[in-house]
Amino acid sequence: MTSMFYAVLVFIFKSPALFLLRGRKILCLCVLIFTVTVSLAQTPAKLDTIVPGRGTPKQQIEESKAIKKQVLADSTGGQPAKSPLVDTTTHNHYGDLLNDDIKYNQKYPWWKPAVNVVGINLFTWTMDRFIFNEPFSHIGPSTWNYNINKGWEWDSDRFGINFIGHPYTGSMYFNAARSQGYSYLQSVPYAVGGSLMWEYLGENTRPSYNDIINTPVNGAFLGEIFYRLSSNVLDDRTRGSERFFRELVAGLINPVRGLNRLLQGKSFRHTLTEVYQKEPLNITIYGGIHQINVDNKTIFGSGPTNQLLTVQFDYGNPFEEIRRKPFDIFRFRTELSIGTGRKILDNIIGYGILFGNTVKWNRLSVLYGAFQYYDYWDNKTFELGAIGFGGGVITRYNISKTLDLYTNFHVSAIPLAGNSTRYGPGTGEVRDYTYNDGLETKFETTLNFGKYVNTGVAFYYYILHTFVGPAGNNYIAILRPRINVRVYKNLSIGFEHFEYYDDRFLKQGPPIYSVRTEQKIYLSYFFEDSQRKGHYD
């Protein structure tokens, strides 16, 4: 079953024939994965660790519940109550492992993940060559010699292929190693190797600079997020139907890990203790209507109306004082816009910490550190994809018992970006975007009025220098003010206004200024981690 879903994902993202039809398939798959992930990733196994000789299982379960109740006493969004019963050198303050248990997650020899990577490329090429008969898949010694001798280029593949298709494939290379006991940093070379193999041997077109950057870098970003989310779903202590569905959903989120678990026998293994690192995971789902205004008009209702579905994952508590590894904290948000036009995957944005520290001064808590950023916008208004590395600060200030202010501020360098041309995104098969480098700044703030109202604004600013395409500089600003009002428990109704500004200064030609506006009305439901409460905005 897992291998079947693995095949489906490869078809969708790697084969241009299916990439044209990917939208509704991705929508159905995302809805299935996200819906089930909400229930399984936040629901701990009913089984607790049972130690022979320490009383009956019932007595030990009751003791464990009492310990958890004490540890989780603070559910207001602050740091969990500390307990001497929790060893914070191996567990976080919620009682979960800080690292995967190496006894049950051994590191396999280097050649095993390498075989995985080769298998991913062979499988993908087989589908492209013998099922879809894609022109680029007709390869052999002559094309390999041509690629090696001719050298590298900036390719002209469609925006989605380069900025989401290749990163997704990179995530599979990455997880070939990550799912076999390798750390985040140790898994990155496998993503690089898989990309090099494909660029030289998998296609009859010249290897491209953008792919060898996008595939491993953004592939590691997506790969680690998929690994962490699947870990929050998996629980080797479970049995029966619950175990089946946990394995199935984890395999959908992370197909390579699901396949390897089957081959390694982990899918059927039963343990008495938790063996995977888990962190607090809060999930917010938004559903509503998306109004896209025509041209430069800012009047509400002047353009088409689409349906929107947005899912946001907030992983880890940034205000827990604990040692950080890469992606112990991340935010991952994806939005689908369904209706007019072929573009459905509207945007994917997120960040993950690489290293950092948390400090506290009275009512103020601050996480500072180095982050990796991923930006992907592909809608009717514009295309923008960017890789970012830089520094960030996440803060929480308790103004009063019912008033909290959360902020995010980030500044990063952009080694590679794609940005739509002056004519806007097209529907053709050729490149309609430029390649750029530059800088980006992100600022987000949320003010919570108890549990009843929260209001906030997000502001993103990009400075892009074009090095492939019409020479010049772009200054792009995105502004997103919003307000949410609680309707019932964790259900809220909200409104967001979206503004996109693009000031383009070309070396040859007059400057170009464009403004686009959108409005969104939605219902949102906040799935707070059932065992590790606290809203980390």
Key attributes of the depicted protein:
537 residues, alpha+beta, 11 helices, 12 strands
Short structural description:
The protein is an alpha+beta fold. 32% of the residues lie in helices and 34% in strands.
| Count of spatially separate domains | 3
Described by the principal axes of the CA atoms, the overall outline is globular
Major β-sheet annotation:
12 strands, antiparallel, barrel
* Radius of gyration of CA atoms, rounded to a whole number: 24 Å
Distance N to C terminus = 36 Å
Structural class: alpha+beta
What proportion strand? 25-35%
In the CATH hierarchy, what is the architecture of the largest domain at level 2? Beta Barrel
